């Protein structure tokens, strides 16, 4: 009798959880989620997206990639309290088991230890060793480009837009996401942008971030799914044009 055919391995599927999608979404954050979804679908990778709002508990087992975007000060205050009291344990569990956590702008600030707005201090979840202080100086606004070195490849450029009044400073247990090529970055002084601690990543780049940087979207997908091999290539002429335009806008 012929040998039975081996059972094919199940197709990978990316599970994404968006935190506070109704509140922390003012910087085209939906575009980041759509980018992840499309690039998975085009490759035959399954994709599921769920949102979790104020008061909803968060399981650290339910997603491979957790995402929190930016919001207005009022909404950020609400989310900071909920994040610390309701969701911090779930996020800590997710990070400990190797999930990817990406925070953009206000979400980045909430992943740190604190955000001081004058006498009022919003406590963060402390998954990044950073602290943010609202400055009386001008907002840091404009196109920005940074050089990023990930663990599995040569330096690459992330390009986007920044608009933040807070100045973020890295502690000894955080490394910058990248080195500023043009723009302000975390605080306009140290020439660093964003922060990383393992698979926890924070950045001020939006506009949105991932449609302007398809290579980074692919890195997030591959890392969240623990795929050893590179993802199948796509026809990225439009994505490469968008990236080039973002770099030109930033003077790079």
Question: What does this 3D model show about the protein?
Answer:
This protein is of the alpha/beta class and 252 residues long. It has a single domain (13-249), classed as Rossmann fold (3-Layer(aba) Sandwich). 27% of the residues lie in helices and 29% in strands. It has five helices and 14 strands. Helix 1 (29-41) crosses helix 4. The protein is globular and about 70 Å long.
In CATH, the architecture is 3-Layer(aba) Sandwich
Number of domains: 1
User: What share of the residues lie within helices?
Assistant: 25-40%
Counted by DSSP, the helix tally is 5
Secondary structure tally: strands: 14
Largest sheet: 6 strands, mixed
Structural class given helices, strands, pairing? alpha/beta
Question: How are the SSEs ordered, and which strands pair?
Answer:
Blueprint: E1 13-19, H1 29-41, E2 46-52, E3 65-68, H2 73-96, E4 100-104, H3 106-111, E5 114-117, E6 120-123, E7 130-134, E8 140-148, E9 156-164, E10 166-170, E11 178-182, E12 192-193, E13 195-197, E14 200-203, H4 214-224, H5 237-249
Parallel strand pairs: 1-2, 1-3, 3-4, 4-14, 5-7
Antiparallel strand pairs: 5-6, 7-10, 8-9, 8-11, 11-12, 13-14
Helix pairs in contact: 1-4
What characteristics describe this protein?
252 residues; alpha/beta; Rossmann fold; four-stranded mixed sheet; 27% helix; globular
In summary, what is this structure?
This protein has 252 residues and is of the alpha/beta class. It has helices at residues 29-41, 73-96, 106-111, 214-224, 237-249, and strands at 13-19, 46-52, 65-68, 100-104, 114-117, 120-123, 130-134, 140-148, 156-164, 166-170, 178-182, 192-193, 195-197, 200-203.
């Amino acid at each position: 009798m012929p040998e039975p055919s081996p059972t094919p391995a199940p197709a990978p599927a990316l599970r994404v959880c968006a935190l506070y999608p109704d509140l922390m979404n003012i910087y085209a954050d939906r575009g980041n989620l759509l980018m992840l979804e499309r690039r998975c679908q085009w490759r035959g990778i399954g994709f599921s997206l769920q949102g979790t709002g104020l008061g909803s508990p968060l399981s650290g087992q339910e997603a491979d990639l957790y995402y929190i975007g930016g919001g207005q000060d009022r909404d950020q205050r609400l989310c900071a309290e909920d994040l610390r009291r309701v969701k911090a344990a779930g996020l800590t569990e997710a990070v400990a088991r190797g999930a990817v956590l990406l925070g953009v702008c206000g979400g980045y600030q909430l992943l740190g230890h604190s955000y001081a707005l004058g006498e009022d201090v919003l406590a963060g979840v402390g998954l990044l060793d950073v602290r943010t202080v609202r400055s009386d100086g001008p907002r840091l606004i404009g196109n920005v480009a940074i050089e990023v070195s990930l663990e599995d490849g040569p330096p690459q450029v992330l390009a986007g837009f920044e608009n933040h009044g807070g100045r973020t400073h890295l502690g000894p247990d955080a490394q910058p996401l990248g080195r500023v090529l043009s723009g302000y970055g975390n605080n306009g002084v140290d020439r660093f942008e964003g922060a990383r601690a393992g698979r926890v990543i924070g950045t001020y780049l939006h506009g949105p971030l991932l449609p302007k940087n398809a290579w980074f979207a692919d890195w997030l997908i591959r890392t969240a799914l623990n795929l050893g091999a590179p993802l199948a290539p796509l026809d990225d002429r439009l994505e490469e044009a968008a990236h080039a335009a973002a770099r030109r806008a930033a003077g790079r």
